[in-house]
């Protein structure tokens, strides 16, 4: 499995180099113009998109057919993609934190909160995007992927409009129990991520290659 992750790193080395340039540019803009949200948004999108790009590269060179002739289970192949995605998230957040250190106007607590939100947000989008691309492929999954980026927002709007959940009451509860928010968010993302891994493994095991 380590070999599979190494393969993805080597295949994606040029996009990763571009990734670092984008980090530097948006990091500078964020600090110079006090727009930390720019870097936040770019890290969030890129940490979710790069694992998907690795699937597109695999499709282009018919990697799946080669990998399935090796002594590897399909579960291991899928798990390697998720571990690669997590590695990218950790790397992205670490670089982002280093860049934030140069912004003396941002308190350390705020820097840590931003990095935590990046970690959770990146993993959530990975959990939504990877099963779609494993199921439909990078080409067909591209349009679906764009729609999925708005799923969390649409979900909140739908819940609010249907009245199934009393959102003001939920907001009030969270305001009264702020110390619980990190635990609730972490647990939610962990459950969604685990469900995503399980779904992707099942899809890939049943996929005709």
Helix-strand blueprint:
Elements: H1 2-11, H2 13-32, H3 36-60, H4 63-67, H5 74-100, H6 108-148, H7 151-162, H8 167-176, H9 181-205
Helix pairs in contact: 1-5, 2-3, 2-5, 3-5, 3-6, 5-6, 5-9, 6-9
Q: Describe the largest sheet.
A: none
Helix fraction, binned, reads: over 70%
Number of helices: 9
Terminal residue distance: 20 Å
Write up what this structure looks like.
With 209 residues, the chain is mostly helical. It is built from nine helices and no strands. The chain has helices at residues 2-11, 13-32, 36-60, 63-67, 74-100, 108-148, 151-162, 167-176, 181-205. It is globular and about 55 Å long. It starts with a helix and ends with a helix.
């Amino acid at each position: 499995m380590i070999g599979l992750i190494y393969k993805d790193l080597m295949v994606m080395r040029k996009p990763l180099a571009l990734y670092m340039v984008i980090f530097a540019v948006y990091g500078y803009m964020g600090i110079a113009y006090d727009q930390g949200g720019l870097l936040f948004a770019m890290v969030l999108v890129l940490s979710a998109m790069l694992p998907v790009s690795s699937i597109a590269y695999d499709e282009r060179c018919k990697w799946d057919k080669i990998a399935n002739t090796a002594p590897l289970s399909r579960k291991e192949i899928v798990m390697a993609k998720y571990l690669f995605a997590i590695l990218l998230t950790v790397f992205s957040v670490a670089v982002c934190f280093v860049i934030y250190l140069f912004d003396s106007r941002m308190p350390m607590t705020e820097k840590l909160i931003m990095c935590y939100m990046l970690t959770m947000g990146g993993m959530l989008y990975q959990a939504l995007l990877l099963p779609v691309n494993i199921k439909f492929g990078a080409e067909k999954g591209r349009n679906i992927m764009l729609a999925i980026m708005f799923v969390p927002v649409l979900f909140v709007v739908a819940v609010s409009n249907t009245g199934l959940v009393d959102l003001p009451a939920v907001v009030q509860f969270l305001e009264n129990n702020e110390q619980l928010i990190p635990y609730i968010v972490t647990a939610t993302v962990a459950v969604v991520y685990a469900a995503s891994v399980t779904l992707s493994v099942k899809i890939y095991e049943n996929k005709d290659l």
